[in-house]
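hey so i finaly got around to running the thing on Olfactory receptor from Rhinolophus ferrumequinum. pasting the sequence first so u can double check i didnt mess up the copy paste, my clipboard has been acting weird all day
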Amino acid sequence: MGNQSLCTGFTFVAFSSLAELQPVLFIVFLIIYLFTVAGNLIIICLIWATPSLHTPMYFFLVNLSFLEMCYITSVVPQMLVHLLKETKTISVGGCAAQMYVFTILGLTECCLLAAMAYDRFVAICYPLHYTLLMGPHVCLKLAAASWTTGVVVESAQTTWIFTLPFCGTGKIQHFFCDIMPVVKLACVDTSHNEIVMFAVSVLFIMSPCFLILFSYVRIFVTIWRIPSAAGRRKAFSTCSSHILVVSLFYGTALFTYLKPKTAHNPETDKATALMYTVVTPALNPVIYTLRNKEVKEILGWGEIFYLILFQKGYN
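ok and heres what it spat out for the 3d tokens, dont ask me to read them lol
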């Protein structure tokens, strides 16, 4: 460490190179954030208020919607504040808190997407045993296991990261406290830490990914064996939304967390991070409403009901 002093806080570089565009970025990200929170809240309330949607698939969707609201809230409000300020600072404790929340929610989403894939696997491959294999207690256990895995694994990893001494300028080449940009500020050799973190990423990101892939291989084989084209379309439509969400989430997560340290570029990392912290949570409500027949029908009836009431009030 030599004569370097320890950091008592960090400064985000964020979008400093786009100083003229920061007011525009503020408006864009604020609209996306409000849309995401409102969209996921609508999904949660719609499922809660509709008894016909009280099924395992929608139970997991409620968990996912709640998680996405927390996920985007762990990053975007702070980013919005920093877009209006010249000095974009955060304390070490604040940075640790953000990393705890963000990483816990990220890993929980990996596990939750795997649980949702298992639900579709049972529904399509074993329809006669679906109510037995996916009863309320099983759903609760799968959801609890997802959240527990996220909390235990990422709490341990983040605590380990913040036992490192940080020194130097304390400039984080990012817009939030992501793992690699923070680890780069450590003033000790972090090669062993990085190997362990990479192993954790491979184990706990790829394991759910392999479960999802295995589930969908079995699902596609089962769908292919359905004799009628209408039956195949109906079976595939029940899991198409989940496939899109998994592709968006895992596409960016694998690109970010499983590439070697030498391949990390600050600008590329920021662009990729915007995809999984802002864009993906915003697209999930759209995907699950526009591509879900049951939700669209309920929203359609709600609109008709509103128009009838409005018309009566007007008359």
